[in-house]
Amino acid sequence: MFFAVCYRALNMTEIEIRKNRRNAARAIDLQQLRLAVAACDYGSFRRAAEVLSIKHTVLSRSVGQLEHLVGTSLFDRSSGGIKPTLAGRAVLRIARLILEQVDALVDTGVSNGRGESGLLTIGFCTSISTGNLRATIGELKKLLPRLELATMERSRFGLMTALRNGTVDVVVSPGRLPSKDTRSLLLWSERILISLPQDHCLAAREIIYWTDLRKRKDPSK
Question: Distance between terminal CA atoms of the chain?
Fold first, then answer.
């Protein structure tokens, strides 16, 4: 059984047209698009050039080059200013979309590079429902609204393993987490309450230190 493929032979004229289109697309630069859009917004080459602090001839030449590359006139010119042609409106609409996407691309790269956006995974082994940890995460969301936050609750050992293998980016844990390949920073301190019987020898103290408890095998005595 034989399979056949059908295709239309292209003549040299069609091949040249496609080649010219590809070359034109490569030759168009963002500055040409920006100047053409600015000229459209201000309705005048001269006015747009003044606002952009460039020479009128530079802007006019750039728009002319763009018109040559796309193969059509973008503006109707008159003594009263310029107006986009029918083809010009279509081209300028696409130009605006391209410029918006390029600006968004740059903003994304800059914000990610500064840590202002992206994903941040926080590991913890304490309560997140109340207290300083909850307040800190809330403030972080307000400060960096474009940053996506994720949380992970594990044991201290599990969190350190996750930090080393990149599963979490930051670990918040009571006490210090000794490790040679990580760095730690003291965030805050919290008081811990202990309940004792009224007749306990430590009950009359306002402050109890860990050393006081370490000396006693049974803290209730």
Answer: 95
| Residues carrying CATH 3.40.190.10, the chain | 118-172
Tokens of 33: 């698009």
Q: Sign of torsion, CA 97 100 106 110?
A: negative
- Lowest-confidence region among 33-47, 101-115, 146-160, 196-210: 101-115
As given in the structure block, the two tokens for residue 218 are 């049974």
Which is more confident, 18 or 104?
Answer: 104
- What confidence tens digit (pLDDT) does each residue in 157-187 have? 888 888 888 888 888 877 776 667 777 777 7
> What's the fold here for domain 118-172?
D-Maltodextrin-Binding Protein; domain 2 (3.40.190)
| pLDDT per position as a tens digit, 96-139 | 999 888 887 776 666 555 555 567 788 887 766 557 777 877 88
Indicate where the chain has its CATH 1.10.10.10 domain(s): 12-112
Place of tokens 């400060």: 143
**CA–CA distance, 39 with 51 (Å, rounded to integer):** 10
* pTM strictly above 0.70: no
Domain 12-112 CATH assignment equals 1.10.10.10 = yes
DSSP 3-state assignment of 46?
helix
Dist. CA 201–CA 137, nearest whole Å:
40
Tokens of 141: 């969301």
Q: What is the DSSP string of 13-25?
A: HHHHHHHHHHHHH
- What is the distance between the alpha carbons of residues 20 and 23, in angstroms, rounded to a whole number? 5
